[in-house]
Amino acid sequence: MAVDVGIQGAMQDPAAVSGWLDHPPRMGFFTDTSVCIGCKACEVACKEWNQVPEDGLNLTGMSFDNTSGLGADTWRHVAFIERPEAGSDHGFRWLMSSDVCKHCTEAACLDVCPTGAIFRTEFGTVVVQEDVCNGCGYCVPACPYGVLDKREDDGRIFKCTLCYDRLGAGQEPACAKACPTDSIQFGPLDELRDRAQGKLDQLVEAGVTGARLYGQDPSDGVGGAGAFFLLLDEPEVYGLPPDPVVTTRHLGEMWRAVAVAAVGLAMAVGGAFIGGQR
Amino acid sequence: MNSSRVTQNGLVDTRPGREAPPGSGRPTGSASAERSRGGRRRRPIEQPRSYYGLPVLNSPVWESREIAGYFFLGGMAGASSVVAAVAQRSGRDSVVKPAKLAAAGGAMLSLVALVTDLGRPTRALNMLRVFKPTSPMSVGTWLLSGYAPAAIVAAATETTGLYPAVGMAASAAAAALGPAVASYTAALICDTAVPAWHDGRHEMPFVFVSSAASAAAGVGLLAASDADEAPLRRLAIGAAAAELATDRLMERRMDPVVAKAYHEGKAGTLLRAARVLTALGAVGAAAGRNNRQLRIASGAALLAASACTRFGVFHAGMASAEDPAATVEPQRARVSAGSAVGN
Lengths: 278, 343
Fold this sequence. Notes:
The structure holds two protein chains of two kinds.
Chain A: H1 14-17, E1 27-32, H2 41-50, E2 76-84, E3 92-100, H3 108-112, E4 118-120, E5 126-128, H4 139-142, E6 149-150, E7 157-158, H5 164-168, H6 174-178, E8 184-188, H7 189-205, E9 212-214, E10 227-231, H8 251-274
Parallel strand pairs in A: 1-10
Antiparallel strand pairs in A: 1-8, 2-3, 4-5, 6-7, 9-10
Chain B: E1 5-7, E2 10-12, H1 30-37, H2 64-89, H3 93-117, H4 136-160, H5 164-190, H6 195-198, H7 204-223, H8 229-253, H9 256-263, H10 265-287, H11 292-322, H12 324-336
Antiparallel strand pairs in B: 1-2
Helix pairs in contact in B: 2-3, 2-5, 2-7, 2-11, 3-4, 3-7, 4-5, 5-7, 7-8, 7-11, 8-10, 9-11, 10-11
């Protein structure tokens, strides 16, 4: 399938494209779900550090999941999946995965933000500036992963900042710091990609079926995610889209169609008045 | 639990930490192995296509009254400005003032609706911090910033008779920007991850301008005198035909899993109503040559049809965002066919 490269185009150094001339290496997350134990320390650490408000302690009926999905007040979400599996210890297989904003190379939320509130940091991450966002909500449906959402009592949009404040001080993000099994690994993206490939090879060698990397490929529909994953099943099982494409890749063809339609409208009105008899 | 020992040669028998493959911490032999051999019946495992049936996307946070309402009003206003300018040029005087008033009223209500829908209405002017062609909302904001004052000045000068030269310039500006105002909203909703909107991106601008033209024709039909009605009936019939055709084409070209959003629920009801009203409006326009009453009914039907189309498309998007299958299945099909963009 031909890839329609949009206005932003394919790029490997998003910080430089965004105007950071002298910038640190691109930083990101590698979330290795094969060692996630579902402790939710990441969820708690994130809330504590970023002062994210409480958003209900719900019994969802979805295994041990209390937070359901990412949103304005959940920036790390641990998914719990119980899959029936013959031959396993308890008759089912338990998958856990800590989801987070993907900090896309081609970020739809950033592209569509009309105020410039969403920007690319020197670390190549994507952050919403709280003092600029006016809550127009365009980024919410633009995100192909369902990450951003509006905080209802506040009106603005919130999401993971990859702990921009901590990065600036040379610290790792709170969730990675708190993760007791190193399921969440933080570091320069190149290094993480190599490490993830090594881990995948090891799992394949150990005969683990279904292991795959998700979001690590710079040629994918979002130009590669800054936060990528090692999954043990299909992405949709974890609530992730299997082949997301940033919507702005198609924006050129949308503007062309709009231009044709607008000219068509003017001509149709003109034609109705000029053509024919009184 | 830790079995590692500290020796003179460093740590021995350390656990593998994050390098551990799944299952390596499992007690070996006896219990677990026997249990799995114990003849548990192998059930067919169905592949879930989502996480507990939850949507993949977060739904738009827009209110239908404000945003779908704006799509209707903005379209009606933009197309009316063109109608007003062309009618003025061709001497269809009875249409000019009503069309300008409709455009100005629509533009003002649009601004109110858009500001109201912001999470922080007091920060509305933050929209003017930047101009971003990658954001249809940014482009639209700048378009409206030019269009709305022009439409309002055009109506004010037309009504008061003051500053006719300024009025002419404002009318021309409003007519020039009107088609863009009426059509950019299609790019605005299509430039999202919402399947029912994004997948309609090639046809949506045509659906939207058809709907805008039929609303403007509706305004014109409500106002036109017997001497001036002919062009508006032609416009009404053309717009209605275009609306019915483009709408059908858009749904037909879509993946059926995605197109479902246009047929079911609130969106389905609204779009069926829109089709009926559009057809009635077109028939009324065709038969209304010497019948003012019929033309008024036809104009009202077309305005209602246009609103139903915009609200229907809006609700189809909302339903589509809520449906994990609409997001996952077309993507899964691409992966299965080996034509995924990623990998």
